[in-house]
Design goal:
The complex is a heterodimer of chains A (323) and B (538).
Chain A lengths: L1 H28 L4 H7 L7 H11 L5 H13 L13 H36 L4 H15 L2 H20 L16 H35 L2 H8 L4 H31 L1 H6 L5 H11 L2 H29 L1 H5 L1
Chain B lengths: L2 H16 L16 E6 L14 H7 L7 E3 L10 E3 L15 E5 L14 H12 L16 E8 L2 E6 L6 H5 L9 H7 L14 E7 L3 E6 L13 E6 L3 H9 L5 E2 L5 H11 L3 E16 L9 H9 L3 H8 L5 E3 L14 H4 L9 H14 L6 E7 L2 H16 L4 E7 L1 H11 L4 E7 L5 H4 L19 H11 L4 H18 L4 E13 L2 E2 L17 E2 L2
Parallel strand pairs in B: 1-9, 1-10, 13-14, 13-15
Antiparallel strand pairs in B: 2-3, 4-6, 5-6, 7-8, 8-9, 11-15, 11-16, 12-16, 17-18
Helix pairs in contact in B: 1-7, 6-7, 8-11, 15-16
The chains are: A mainly alpha (323), B alpha+beta (538).
């Protein structure tokens, strides 16, 4: 097992380096630069020498190979550099948004898990009944409805219904407060994006749970358990579910990794100051330093979650470990 | 009351307020206290407005600072009403044949850290803006080409000496980004200190910020205007999506968004909130242009460019587009309604402004045929922003189709758009714009001159006559003569040579919670943001 882990960890290095090269090159292929976005957005007359000075201060006048080595050297010395837009350290920009993104990711995963596993089991156990059709319809709707639309409908619904019922329209707070400082404010803001995201995410997991359960319920050992006269509850929970959960856990883990950096649309719709929004800002402004580091953060999270999933597989299934 | 009646009521009230119809008889006594929450659509790149040009920096940061002079916050619609902010009395008249302005500085003005303001601070500030040291960015230093020197003969006097008399100086001085810094801060902390730190003499003190989320200000008790500000503080909340900014006002998470909303969002808010929403509207010192690229052979013939402008139904477009987009007013090169700008009678004499659309379009077709360009095909470069770029771009293509032109639209994200417009010049015709803060037509119209830094029509060096007209304008001190020169310049730039096509001027719409008082809409989203006169009627 130790050898297997070492092999997988060493494989991470070329993966990360490849990602770094790709990110660096792709960002610079897009036309324009941050100084043009910053100074020309208003249509004012800005002298070319001022824009050139800005490019020089941002290091954009250096050869690209030098810029690349600066970027990689930053990782070696644990200095991610400064955002080209705000001038703040990138580590600081990420750190202040990390808590929010992590909390939404955890809450959405919880919402998804709480919805997906029971519904998936019920749907499988009552296959081809009305309950099954309703659950499948619910799941397909979750996949089909875009998160941004659902998010906007949630906000609009809250405004319309609170105005109709209480006289004044209410919407969730639009600025973040830590759950440790103000739990009520925090939950009033984050529960809605967690529901909107968790619903979509649960739809995939529900279908996965259902199909995995259907497969397992047809296995010989389940039939044997039933033949031995075990209670159906025990057959489902102890024998079937445990084995059916393996692919579901994988899906949940990968989706969690995605949520950490990929909640771009939901964060915009709910005005969340998270990593997804930061990524959009970075790309729009051509803030290379910030965007490179954010993409690398997402890559690292993915690689790490993948590693953890593979290790979990290897732990659960000796055939993977020894192959 | 139906939603339309409520809308009409609120609009009437709001417009009345904007026009100052309320008058002294309706003046209310300001109430002290409360925190104003307002929304900003983007994050400030830095806190140093000497080097920034975005409203996203002006709205949250402007209340921390004072200016030497400013647009009168009680009469911001006036393009000529300036008042002293850090100087004493009224804005001084020039001496020395219009070449010297002497300002007396207020005594006892305190910076937020306790320093006392002197003339040296004002001089250090304007030297940073006008002639910054090597390596220090000052994006508007070109506004002050007329300034020869800024000096402080004593602690209470600042003297600006100009190279030539010009009407462009005072409006330029009132630019809302000219925050006055402490000379000591600049000397001790350096010229980049203000990018991340705040120490002003404004009505509010910096109370913290969270990147990407908000900026907080609290009342400065030693503010140099006694009795102000009225608010305890404010929070500038950042929200990128228009839908959220609108809903934030509806749900009272914020009371106002100072940049402005499109007509549909105004109508939605009014329908939802009725008397709880007040709408202020104003012409906006932003104009959307179409710029033919004279570097391309197909756009080098003035007859083709004249045809492009002749095809456009500006008067009809004003009526229809103003229902869906933030554009409305028909105008020439200067801000509509400014004394130096053209009246309707003057405009209709220009190609493309006539009221007989059929005749204009027939003339356009004739000119195209003469130039051998009938049925010309070309591409319109546009910015990937709905309001008002894509709406106006699509409308323009429809207008040009009426004279047999086949135009396709290439929409690019903002950064690529700038690159194509400014650097690579990869376009036949492009949408372009000119947005300024203080209405200063003499400076603003430089956009139409080929040699201007923000002119992208590729006609630099190809129209010396226009350059000469502009040079004459900037050095003319007499307003009547300035107006005459403006007409000559307008005719040359928009009609005879048709270097640029003015589409419509923008229209600013600010629906806000009715409890926000004391703020009057200005003709620019950069102006009237000091917040010292704002109060909450709660």
């Amino acid at each position: 097992m130790g050898k297997y882990i070492l092999k997988r960890v060493l494989l991470m290095i070329p993966t990360l380096l490849g990602a770094a090269i790709l990110v660096f090159l792709l960002l610079r292929m897009a036309p324009g630069d941050i100084c043009a976005v910053r100074f020309l957005g208003t249509g004012m007359a800005v002298a070319e020498d001022q824009i050139a000075m800005c490019r020089e201060q941002m290091g954009l006048d250096k050869p690209q190979i030098v810029q690349f080595f600066d970027f990689i050297w930053g990782y070696v010395i644990f200095d991610l550099g400064e955002s080209m837009w705000t001038g703040q350290p990138v580590a600081h920009e990420i750190a202040i948004r990390f808590e929010l993104s992590l909390q939404v990711a955890i809450m959405a995963t919880l919402v998804a898990t709480v919805i997906a596993i029971p519904l998936g089991i019920i749907s499988a156990v009552r296959q081809n009944t009305l309950t099954d059709y309703v659950v499948r319809g619910f799941a397909i709707a979750g996949i089909a409805i875009p998160s941004f639309w659902l998010g906007l409908m949630i906000i609009l619904g809250l405004l319309v219904f609170t105005q109709a019922w209480f006289g004044d329209p209410w919407m969730p707070p639009i600025n973040f407060k830590s759950i440790w400082d103000d739990p009520a404010h925090n939950l009033a803001q984050l529960i809605w994006p967690a529901v909107a995201t968790g619903y979509r995410y649960s739809a995939v997991a529900t279908r996965m749970t259902r199909s995995a359960m259907l497969e397992v319920l047809r296995e010989d050992y389940v039939r044997t358990a039933r033949a031995k006269g075990m209670l159906e509850r025990i057959v489902i929970n102890r024998h079937a579910l445990k084995n059916a959960l393996l692919p579901v856990v994988t899906i949940l883990a990968l989706e969690f990794a995605f949520l950490m950096g990929g909640l771009v649309v939901t964060e915009q719709v709910f005005n969340l100051n998270g990593l997804g929004n930061l990524m959009v800002d970075g790309v729009e402004r051509q803030d290379f330093t910030l965007t490179q580091n954010l993409v690398m953060l997402v890559v690292i999270v993915y690689v790490f979650v993948n590693l953890m999933t593979d290790l979990a597989y290897a732990w659960l299934d000796p055939r993977i470990r020894y192959s | 009351m139906s939603k339309y009646a409520r809308f009409a009521f609120a609009l009437a009230v709001g417009t009345g307020l904007a026009m100052g119809a309320g008058g002294p008889a309706k003046a209310e006594t300001p109430k002290k206290g409360g925190t104003l929450n307002f929304i900003v659509a983007a994050e400030a790149p830095s806190y140093d407005l000497h080097k920034e040009s975005t409203f996203a920096a002006v709205h949250p940061i402007r209340p921390f600072y004072s200016l030497l002079i400013r647009v009168n916050p009680d009469n911001p619609q006036s393009p000529t009403d300036f008042q002293c902010d850090l100087c004493v009395g009224s804005v001084p008249k020039p001496t020395d044949g219009g070449k010297t302005y002497t300002f007396k500085i207020k005594k006892g003005v305190k910076f937020h850290d306790g320093q006392t303001l002197t003339a040296a601070d004002v001089v250090a500030t304007f030297n940073k803006i006008i002639s910054p040291p090597e390596g220090v960015v000052s994006v508007r230093k070109a506004f002050y080409k007329m300034v020869d020197s800024v000096t402080a003969p004593d602690d209470e006097t600042v003297v600006f000496k100009l190279k030539f008399p010009t009407g462009a100086f005072i409006p330029a001085l009132a630019t809302p980004m000219n925050h006055v810094y402490s000379a000591k801060d600049l000397k001790e902390h350096g010229y980049s200190w203000h990018e991340k730190n705040v120490n002003g003499t404004g009505a509010f003190k910096f109370a913290g910020a969270v990147a990407g989320s908000h900026v907080d200000g609290v009342r400065f008790e030693n503010f140099h205007v006694k009795g102000k500000p009225y608010l305890d503080g404010y929070r500038a909340l950042i929200s990128r999506k228009l839908a959220i900014r609108v809903q934030a006002i509806r749900g009272d998470r914020a009371a106002i968004e100072f940049r402005g909303f499109p007509p549909k969002q105004r109508d939605d808010l009014v329908a939802a909130l009725g008397k709880d929403i007040t709408v202020q509207e104003s012409d906006w010192n932003c104009v959307l242009l179409f710029t033919p690229n004279q570097g391309r052979p197909i756009m080098q013939d003035p007859r083709v460019r004249q045809a492009l402008t002749l095809a456009v139904d500006r008067w009809g477009g004003s009526q229809h587009l103003s229902r869906i987009a933030i554009v409305k007013t028909v105008g020439g090169i200067g801000f509509p309604g400014h004394p130096l700008s053209a009246t309707k009678a003057e405009l209709v004499r220009l190609n493309g402004y006539g009221t007989d659309l059929k005749a204009s379009r027939e003339k356009a077709k004739k000119l195209l045929a003469e130039a051998g360009k009938a049925g010309l095909k070309f591409e319109l470069l546009n910015r990937g922003t709905d309001q008002p770029y894509k709406i106006v771009g699509t409308w323009l293509i429809g207008q040009w189709r009426q004279i047999g032109l086949e135009v396709t639209q290439k929409v690019e994200p903002t950064k690529s758009f700038y690159n194509s417009l400014r650097k690579t010049k990869e376009f036949d015709v492009s949408l372009d714009f000119n947005c300024q803060s203080v209405i200063n037509p003499i400076v603003d119209v430089s956009k139409f001159v080929g040699s201007a830094g923000n002119n992208y029509g590729n006609y630099k060096g190809k129209d010396q006559e226009l350059e000469d007209i502009y040079n004459q304008l900037i050095k003319e001190g007499d307003e009547k003569k300035q107006r005459e020169i403006m007409r000559v310049m307008e005719k040359r730039a928009l009609s005879d040579m048709a270097h640029e096509g003015v589409t419509l001027w923008w229209y600013k719409i600010n629906p806000h919670r009715s409890y926000v008082k004391g703020w009057k809409i200005a003709p620019s989203h950069y102006l009237n943001q000091s917040l010292d006169q704002v109060w909450l009627d709660k």
